[in-house]
Amino acid sequence: MEDEQGSGQGGALAEALAGWVGARIDAAHANPATGLVALAVYAGARRVLGAGLGPRVAGAGVLPRLPRLRAGASHPLVAAMRAHLVGRRVLAIEVRRDGIAVVAGDPLPGENDGEGEGADEVERAPEARPAPAAGGGLELAAGGGPEPAVGGGLEPAAGGGLELAPGARLELAPGRRGEARLLDAAGRLILRWPPQGSAPPAEIAYPADPFAAGAALVEASDEAAAGQEKAALARAVRARRAALERRAEAVRGDLGRLGSVARLQKTGQLLLAQGGRVPRGAAKALLDDWETGGTIEVALDPARPAKAQAEAFFAKARRYQRGEAVMRARLAETERALAAVAALEADVAAAEARAEALEPLAQRARALGVSRAELAGVGAAGGGEAGAAGARGARAGRAAPRRPFHAFRSASGAAILVGRGAADNDALTTKHARPHDLWLHAKGVSGSHVVVPLPKGASCPADVLVDAATLAAHFSDARGEAVCEVSYVPRRHVRKPRGAAPGAVTFDREKVIAVRVEAERLSRLLATKEEG
């Protein structure tokens, strides 16, 4: 009795797919997080076969649409299906007790393979019919057919004029622990998903109504994926809020050091007055404090005369004073961003887990500097491609790989990359920057490497150059100076000498810009920092 019911259910799906033989396969998608695999054909109109392989959706049916949330083209299963199936014709569809097999073929040389002719080609189905080849592969034969399937295998009808050569075979075993197998024309395994294999049921429970089952499959997949995307978005926004809180705390610490300006100036004055009696080569000095009657211990550079080092204390005091306006502006900007992120965090928590509801929130998050890697795939709907790698990492709670640079945006939206440290400078310059990108560095002082990505053959716009030079000055030992000279050259003219210290490079064909560091410009740039 069960066999008869299973056969009838498989027959309903086979009947629904009957008109697809000869149609062109024009799309292949998957959402590995939910287990939904979708194969779309054009047969007078778009038709979509769906198979849920688990863990979140299981079963098979005819989908009313493509899934809104799906992996990008770089996913192994999607890449393999597109390479071996998309653009080919359906040679046969087999609905079996243990799964569904779609055999794809290419028109033989000289045959018409034009766009938009799917309906006609279904009517004049291929004359050749697939038969098992040695080793399990398929070959064209004048007669015979595939092994009997549940409800009957779907074979090309005789009498047509279009001849197809078998190219690949996709086998789908729906179920909570199902799998997909892609084989070439000789029956050799191209790809198995999941890679570790699975234990699909010996017999598939096919739906009595494949259209209703397909509608439920795609809705369940999108609902499950959207729930995961909402959780990923919430985590990314929380991470951004934490980063802004750390930044605000750091700026408050910088502002707290303004109280040391008077002490620095006093130390410089005492060193000027008493440095003559400090022994040459001393690493520290005890200076008489005329105001309190005590002494002040000062650390010195043994290689330089004590009096000559007084200017360093005056210069540091001047940098603190000049940087006060920038620091206060940055703190105000950070606090405004924190308020915006807190509001976004509340909106994300209240949002429905739907792609169309999440996408506007993801756009707001990007505008507030949330890492694009953490947001990959969030709210990707319609015909969009989800960034599978970033989305999977975020869903699994794994942090995106650390970048060796921070990204900022100019007023025009151009990216400006700033190295995060000495070793990071090397990685930015030698691994991430392209030969035609613009490379900048504060002249004559230690500092971050700065890179402006440019299209090949393009020159850097003047406003972007000034923005990049401003960041190069800020992220260097010249921070706080009103004017700073910045070197800039195409990346191809920068070299890393063998054995050089981290961050140390040489370059030629140098040009120099003297940039006046404007507090308003610097605050605008710092507010665009993308964490990652």
How would you describe this structure to a colleague?
- With 532 residues, the chain is α+β, with helices and mostly antiparallel strands.
- The protein is 36% helix and 23% strand.
- The chain is built from twelve helices and 21 strands.
- It has helices spanning 2-17, 76-84, 118-123, 210-256, 261-274, 310-350, 355-367, 372-375, 388-395, 422-432, 462-474, 519-526, and strands spanning 24-31, 36-42, 46-53, 58-63, 89-96, 99-107, 129-132, 138-141, 164-173, 179-184, 189-193, 284-288, 295-299, 405-409, 415-419, 438-442, 450-452, 483-490, 494-495, 506-507, 511-516.
- The strands form six sheets. Strands 14-15-17-16-18-21 form a six-stranded antiparallel sheet.
- Helix 4 (210-256) runs parallel beside helix 7 and helix 5 (261-274) runs antiparallel to helix 6.
- The longest helix has 47 residues, at 210-256.
- It is elongated, with a radius of gyration of 33 Å.
- The relative contact order is 0.10.
Q: Identify the strand order in the major beta sheet.
A: 14-15-17-16-18-21
Return residue spans where pLDDT drops below 50 for at least 5 consecutive residues.
Answer: 1-8, 110-162, 379-399
| Class by alpha and beta content | alpha+beta
| Helix count, DSSP H or I runs of 4 or more residues | 12
What's the end-to-end separation, in Å?
A: 59 Å
Rg, alpha carbons = 33 Å
Beta-strand proportion: 15-25%
Q: Please count the beta strands (DSSP E, at least 2 residues each).
A: 21
